[in-house]
Structure formats: structure tokens, C-alpha cells
Amino acid sequence: MRILHTSDWHLGRAFHRVSMLGAQAEFIGHLVATVRERDVDAVVVSGDVYDRAVPPLAAVELFDDALHRLAELGVPTVMISGNHDSARRLGVGAGLIGRAGIHLRTEPAAVGTPVVLADDHGDVAFYGLPYLEPALVKDEFGVEKPGHEAVLAAAMDRVRADLAGRAHGTRSVVLAHAFVTGGEASDSERDITVGGVAAVPSGVFDGVDYVALGHLHGSQTITERVRYSGSPLPYSFSEADHRKSMWLVDLGPDGELDAERIDCPVPRALARIRGPLEELLEDPRLARYEEAWVEATLTDAVRPAEPMARLTERFPHTLSLVFEPDRAPEDRDVSYGQRLKGRSDQQIAEDFVAHVRGAGPDEREREVLQDAFDAVRAEDASLKEGVRGRQDDHGRGKNLREVAR
């Protein structure tokens, strides 16, 4: 059986404020074309279909289009919910949609109930393990100390129990959305450590022929039978070195496995460049990044004037600007209070400007700071004088009342 493994579509997500909806639509077209051209028998989508629990309408429409196009191919599809999805919303109408060959698995209680497909060599059971938040599913799985490893182990016990009751030679595929030990994370994944230690050992999945993982955005092989497809598109600059792809898995009659990476179309390359601004603007070796989405880290000791405007003249798709000046480190043994001791308000303000910008204020800026401090002092003196005046008036009134008595 030929299986196409993908995950982490994150429909509706932007990349540094750049809409990815067009690129996501292109990916869906690529997915459908791959299914048709490579004679795929089943598609598995291992969670994070949407980027958030309540996705924008355009993302819902794109998902609807994907479902219709996959159903028209007549190729069964199995999907699970991820930690970004609302399991209840994604699973609405699952029974009806299943009649069209699109099988949504979003209920924790159903982890031991597979979608059973058949090829010339017999049955293949597809078990969908949606993202299992330990605190929410501990009672369902009867675990005493809720944690990711405990609930996944309990879910896999149900999978193995069901598989043991099936005909000898039944092959098995598990879809799961989890952080498995050995996987390499990026800046794009939402932290799932709230439910205890996030990582679970790959041994939790022992006993099945293939584990189609979702959650981590880099395509990677944990073991020969446990793999992440990764996201089809980049969602942070930490993914600059990723090769975006899907896994095309051939599952043989006796469970033997052959996997091939199918590249996904990426709208624009990602580049991380670093150095002083003038070097970035002049270095001929950076010409290959002029059409890329760029994250630039400036190391100038003094913050340059209008850095983004100047960068975009050469790199028009610069999306992120970071300032990490190369300066001598401050003495960590000197406390903040010691550094301020004996310094005037004006000197402290000038030091702050120098710390933030890399160079102290010029003469005109010093005058602006001085005028600001003079205005504050004058206002403070005026307020104090007003308080004293009210106190004096109160004292005179009290004396007059005593004389009258």
C-alpha cells in the first residue's frame, strides 16, 4: 500500500505578517497532483490542519476545497487534530464526511478504533491518535499521573489490543501528534510542556508498522518506522535550512517499508544574514538572497540610521530586523545601583541612550534631554508650592477661628 504522509498545514497562518494563503492553496494543489500522479492509495494528515482553534473563513474555505478534491480522487484520507486545532470543530460532521472517504479522528476515546483499508495483500489498520492533552484525557485513559508519555502509552495499549484481535498479517499505521525524543524542534511549534515533560520515547509506538508523526516542522526520521513529515511551508526563520517535503511510504505485504521524500513548492527561499549594515549592503556573496525572505541581524556597534529602509533597497523582501551589536560586555560584578551611584538624572538618561543605540546623544539631543528634565523639575516645584500654599491657608484659617472663639 502506498501512503502519502503529511502534517502541520497550519491553514490561515501568516509568515511575519505575509499571508501564506496563496502558498497553502498551491500546496493543496501539489498534494492532489502527487496523489494522482504517484498512484497513492491513502493520504494521512497528522494534525495541525488549522493554525488556531477558530480559523479565519478563508482557511476554512481552503480546507473545504481540499476535502472535495481529495474525495473526488476516490483515495481514502485519514486526518487527526493537532494541538493548534479545535478537536470538536475539526471533527464536526466526521460521520458524514467519512462516507466520502475522508476519515477525521479527533476523539481520544476512539484511538483503538481504526480505519481499515485493504490492498491485494490484506488489511491495513490506520489508528488516529489526535493530540492528547494529558490534563484533559487522564480520566479517559485511567492514568494516575497525567503526562504525555503516560497518556500516549495508554492510547497505544488500546491500539495494540485492537490489533491483536485482528487477522494475522494485518498491517498497521498510527497517526500521532506529539514531540518524540530525538526530534529537532524549531521556533514555529507551540510549546506543549504544560502537561508535563513534552518529549516521549519512540518506544511508546513499538508494535506497529509505520508511525506518521506531526507537530515538529522539520522532516525527520526518528527510526526507520517513526517519521515526521514536517510542515509543507516554513513558518519561522528557524526553518531556513529545512527541506519542505512529504513522505511517500510503500508498505509491503509483510510490513517492509520504503520511504521517499516528495518536495513541496515553497513560494520564496528563506535567508538569515548577519553583519554590519554596510557589509550586508555591499557583500557580493549575498546576491543570491536578494529575492529571498530575509532576516537580517545587524552587528554594528552603533545602531545605523534607517536600517530597514536601506536593507530593503537591496533585499526588498526583508521581513525581520534584529540588532545585536558587537560591544564589550558589561561587568556583571557591578550592580545596577553601583553603576548609577553619584550620577545625575541627565547622565543616567544619556547612558540609557548610549546603551540602546550604541552611541550617546549629540549636543542637540543633550539639550532636548536637559529641557525635558528642567520642565519636569519646574512642574514638580509648582506642585510642591501649591501644596504648601494650601497648608498655609489652612493654618491661617485655623488661627482666625481660634481668635473668634
Model description:
The protein is of the alpha/beta class. The chain has eleven helices and 19 strands. The protein has helices at residues 21-37, 57-73, 87-90, 94-98, 134-141, 148-164, 277-282, 307-314, 336-340, 345-357, 363-404; strands spanning 2-6, 14-15, 18-19, 42-46, 77-80, 102-105, 115-119, 122-129, 171-177, 179-180, 199-200, 210-214, 220-223, 226-228, 245-251, 257-263, 270-275, 293-298, 318-323. Strands 6-5-4-1-15-16 form a six-stranded mixed β-sheet. Heterodimer of SbcC and SbcD. Residues 381-405 are annotated as: Disordered. Residues 1-218 form the Calcineurin-like phosphoesterase domain. GO terms for molecular function: 3'-5' exonuclease activity; endonuclease activity.
What layout of secondary structure does this protein have?
Blueprint: E1 2-6, E2 14-15, E3 18-19, H1 21-37, E4 42-46, H2 57-73, E5 77-80, H3 87-90, H4 94-98, E6 102-105, E7 115-119, E8 122-129, H5 134-141, H6 148-164, E9 171-177, E10 179-180, E11 199-200, E12 210-214, E13 220-223, E14 226-228, E15 245-251, E16 257-263, E17 270-275, H7 277-282, E18 293-298, H8 307-314, E19 318-323, H9 336-340, H10 345-357, H11 363-404
Parallel strand pairs: 1-4, 4-5, 5-6, 8-9, 9-12, 10-11, 12-14, 17-18, 18-19
Antiparallel strand pairs: 1-15, 2-3, 7-8, 13-14, 15-16
Helix pairs in contact: 1-2, 5-6, 10-11
Region (Disordered): 381-405
Keywords: DNA recombination, DNA replication, Endonuclease, Exonuclease, Hydrolase, Nuclease
GO molecular function: 3'-5' exonuclease activity; endonuclease activity
